[in-house]
Design a protein that fits this description.
By secondary structure, the chain is α/β, with parallel strands linked by helices. It has 7 helices and 10 strands. The chain has a single domain, classed as P-loop containing nucleotide triphosphate hydrolases (Rossmann fold, 3-Layer(aba) Sandwich). The strands form 2 sheets. The chain has a 6-stranded mixed sheet with strand order 6-7-8-3-9-10. It has a 4-stranded antiparallel sheet with strand order 2-1-4-5, covered by helices on one side. The longest helix has 16 residues.
């Protein structure tokens, strides 16, 4: 039986705007097994990205427990939470979020600046991560010299470089054409199957969700149904 790397228990999230309160997540329970590739699906406003941000420690629940890699992260203070994220979570976003003035290699090294590794060790690990995503030969190129698919591969290498427990992907193919999207999804699938990475991915795209080991559909802040492709 697989160990749960993510456990959410009774998680609710309410945002207050002026006198109005909006409950985005409603007493939600979710387990993600170690080595799983989970696709979170649902219409806009269903709470997918909010849930992703809670799992990644970018936001905190109004109520409930968020346990990731054995840690109650909703209890952590901001400095401890930042250190926890650096060790445990790699993030991949729709628009890559690369630093335009840095080379691919220097972009990949960024998460390692929070560690005590030497410059030569950071460079070594960044080269390995770029090799894993098939971009070793583009290490010296800046983001404006890369295609969209290449830029997303750099972003994935950056997410991998610290060997995190969990990869969090928010619409990672939303800005890509179908062929390039399939290449990126194939890469994520390989990272899951061959490198054992646990992945939680938000997507609107049913074809993207087919690459996952299972799918969870959300509606109005609750889990609507679960599917195994």
């Amino acid at each position: 039986m697989s160990t749960a790397i993510v456990q959410l228990r009774g998680v609710s999230k309410t945002y207050t705007r002026g006198k109005q309160s909006v409950e985005v997540l409603k007493a939600l329970d979710l387990d993600v097994a170690q080595g799983d590739f989970l696709a979170l699906m649902g219409p806009s406003g269903s709470g997918k990205t909010t849930l992703l941000n809670l799992i990644g420690g970018l936001d905190q629940p109004t109520r409930g427990e968020v346990i990731v890699a054995g840690e109650r992260i909703e209890k952590l203070k901001s400095s401890a939470l930042a250190a926890w994220r650096a060790r445990n979570v790699g993030f991949v976003f729709q628009f890559y979020n690369l630093m335009p003035m840095l080379s691919a290699q220097k972009n990949v090294e960024l998460p390692l600046l929070l560690t005590k590794l030497s410059a030569s060790e950071r460079a070594r690990r960044a080269k390995i991560a770029l090799t894993v995503v098939g971009l070793a030969e583009r290490a010296s190129h800046k983001p404006n010299e890369l295609s969209g698919g290449q830029a997303q591969r750099v972003a994935i290498a950056r997410a991998l470089v610290a060997d995190p427990t969990l990869l969090i992907c928010d619409e990672p193919t939303g800005d890509l054409d179908r062929k390039t999207a399939d290449e990126i999804l194939g890469l994520l699938q390989t990272l899951n199957r061959e490198h054992g990475k646990t992945i939680v991915m938000v997507t609107h795209d049913p074809k993207a969700a087919e690459y996952a080991t299972h799918q969870v559909h959300m509606d109005k802040g609750a889990l609507a149904k679960e599917e195994v492709p």
